[in-house]
Design a protein that fits this description.
about 230 residues; mainly alpha
């Protein structure tokens, strides 16, 4: 009899746990965060990054609703990108402007754009020759990303930006270079993929090493909008 009662209690507890898991309580909390984050996005981000987040805003803004991008970065990365911005570009630091809750909710809203998780073949370590990388960069990257990675409005990210380099790993930059960003100007560069540039893995590592070696340029590009 005692065993039957114990077994019944175990079944009840399991049922409660499953009930809570299927009740949508946690999903509801996340849905609230996403809804609140959408309001923050519309008020602060839409003008640059666009209504759908694909960079179609009236001002300068990169495509952040992008499966390649979202598959590479963490929620913490998204949070840091927004909080600290990009000095010298149209992307201001929102840390002083938004509350901690707003930043977290905005991150949840942007993460909700992710519909799939892509996998990438990345070298275990990204190490290269910066001098050779500079030559490769000037041939393949300068046209969009500007001299010494300064960036060009509506063309390419400021790669030498101190906040970008601080909150982006070498592997993340390597993946962005190799695999590109779908539905943007940034096509894949890795040999074997469907891109105009057919670079070897070491070529890309050399470019990343060059980008890391660029000294910070405090001069603001003339074609960048003011925050």
């Amino acid at each position: 009899m005692k065993k039957i009662l114990i077994g019944s209690y175990v079944l009840i507890i399991i049922g409660v746990i499953l009930g809570i898991g299927n009740s949508g309580i946690f999903d509801s909390e996340n849905s609230k965060a996403i809804a609140s984050g959408e309001k923050v996005y519309i008020k602060n981000c839409l003008v640059c990054h666009g209504e759908t987040g694909k960079g179609e805003g009236s001002n300068a803004g990169t495509a952040i609703n992008n499966q390649h991008f979202l598959s590479v970065i963490s929620d913490k990365d998204l949070y840091n990108y927004v909080k600290y911005g990009r000095e010298g570009t149209a992307m201001p630091a929102y840390g002083p402007r938004l509350s901690e809750k707003d930043l977290v909710n905005l991150t949840a809203f942007m993460r909700n754009w992710q519909t799939k998780e892509l996998e990438f073949n990345v070298p275990k370590t990204v190490s290269g020759d910066p001098d050779r990388g500079m030559k490769q960069y000037n041939v393949y990257c300068l046209n969009c990303h500007g001299e010494a990675g300064a960036g060009k409005i509506k063309m390419g990210t400021a790669l030498s930006n101190p906040q970008y380099l601080k909150f982006t790993t070498d592997k993340q930059i390597w993946i962005a270079t190799a695999y590109g960003r779908e539905e943007t100007r940034m096509g894949p560069s890795l040999k074997g993929l469907e891109g105009v540039r057919q670079l070897k893995k070491q070529d890309i590592s050399d470019i990343i090493s060059y980008i890391r070696s660029i000294k910070e340029n405090k001069e603001v590009p003339k074609d960048y909008l003011k925050p």
